[in-house]
């Protein structure tokens, strides 16, 4: 048992380092690490990964909130809609067989990897300032508040429901859903989008962790050392983030994520005895 907890701590530490160097998208590596490192099923790994995501995102969101970068009304609303879907996702994960869940996770991981590679393959991120704004959620003035219209409410609610369901079902933070959604439907600056998405991830993950604990689906003997390792790894990674972080590193992580995704599919094929 002690050996399992040590491995869990080391896997969590690696997750935290990746998270610090690559951003919120790096947390998606947590579930595959638990699957390959401790031979857990997706339904077992997801709540554990969600706890690590919750704690790390909370730290990041708290720092951003102190810097007044978080749009807390938008974050709260998206998280509220996500709160409806997250427990359903956790319940569904316990009912579905491991094979389709693993394949679904591999597909999501592949999507995140390609999206991360594409975003960092060119310096087009600054194009956010050139977005045309027939967007449904607009600021009433530069640095002001969002104007809440029905199209705005609908767009943010949809992103929350999607992020919440994937968070509960697969143990992912949902940042790969929230960030593109905020970029598409608002005219917020990129720093505000990232800060707000961290707050959303923290809130939805907290709801998911609470639901998993209430349903007795959390393996605390593995979850606690994993989460502790993730925090330690993230704090360690932040010391080197300015030196190593950048587009090339994120592209490297994207390639790693593709390899992990392919490995998950191969594992499913052989475990299921397809070949």
Features:
0% strand, 275 residues, mainly alpha
Structure overview:
This protein is globular. With 275 residues, it is an all-alpha fold. The protein has helices spanning 2-22, 30-38, 42-66, 72-95, 98-120, 150-170, 175-185, 190-214, 220-244, 247-271. Helix 2 (30-38) packs antiparallel against helix 3 (42-66) and helix 4 (72-95) packs parallel to helix 8.
Q: Write down the Rg.
A: 18 Å
Mean pLDDT: 81
In which range does the helix fraction lie?
over 70%
Summed up, the domain count is 1
- Structural shape: globular
Secondary-structure element series: HHHHHHHHHH
Number of continuous helical runs = 10
Kindly report how far apart the N and C termini lie.
Answer: 34 Å
List low-pLDDT spans.
Answer: 123-130
The helix/strand class is mainly alpha
Tally the beta strands: 0
Q: What profile does the largest beta sheet have? A: none
In terms of DSSP E residues, the strand content is under 5%
Helix and strand layout, with pairings?
Elements: H1 2-22, H2 30-38, H3 42-66, H4 72-95, H5 98-120, H6 150-170, H7 175-185, H8 190-214, H9 220-244, H10 247-271
Helix pairs in contact: 1-2, 1-9, 2-3, 3-4, 3-6, 3-8, 3-9, 4-6, 4-8, 5-10, 6-7, 6-8, 7-8
Summarize the structure.
The chain is mainly α and 275 residues long. Helix content is 76%, strand content 0%.
């Amino acid at each position: 048992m002690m050996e399992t907890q040590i491995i869990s701590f080391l896997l969590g530490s690696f997750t935290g380092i990746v998270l610090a160097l690559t951003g919120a998208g790096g947390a998606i590596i947590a579930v595959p690490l638990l699957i390959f490192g401790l031979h857990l099923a997706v339904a077992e790994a997801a709540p554990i990964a969600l706890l690590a995501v919750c704690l790390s995102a909370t730290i990041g969101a708290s720092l951003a909130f102190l810097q007044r970068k978080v749009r807390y009304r938008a974050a709260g609303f998206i998280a509220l809609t996500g709160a409806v879907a997250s427990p359903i996702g956790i319940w569904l994960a316990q009912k579905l067989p491991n094979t389709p869940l693993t394949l679904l996770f591999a597909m999501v991981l592949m999507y995140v990897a390609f999206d991360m590679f594409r975003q960092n393959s060119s310096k087009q991120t600054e194009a956010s300032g050139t977005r045309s704004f027939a967007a449904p959620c607009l600021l009433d003035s530069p640095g002001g508040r969002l104007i809440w219209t029905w199209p705005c409410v609908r767009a943010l609610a949809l992103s929350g429901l999607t992020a919440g369901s994937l968070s509960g079902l697969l143990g992912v933070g949902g940042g790969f859903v929230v960030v593109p959604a905020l970029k598409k439907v608002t005219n917020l600056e990129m720093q505000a989008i990232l800060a707000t998405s961290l707050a959303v991830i923290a809130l939805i993950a907290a709801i998911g962790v609470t639901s998993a604990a209430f349903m007795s689906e959390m393996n605390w003997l593995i979850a606690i050392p994993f989460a502790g390792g993730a925090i330690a790894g993230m704090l360690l990674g932040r010391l080197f983030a300015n030196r190593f972080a950048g587009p090339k590193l994120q592209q490297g992580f994207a390639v790693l994520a593709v390899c992990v995704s392919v490995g998950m599919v191969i594992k499913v094929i052989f475990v299921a005895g397809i070949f």
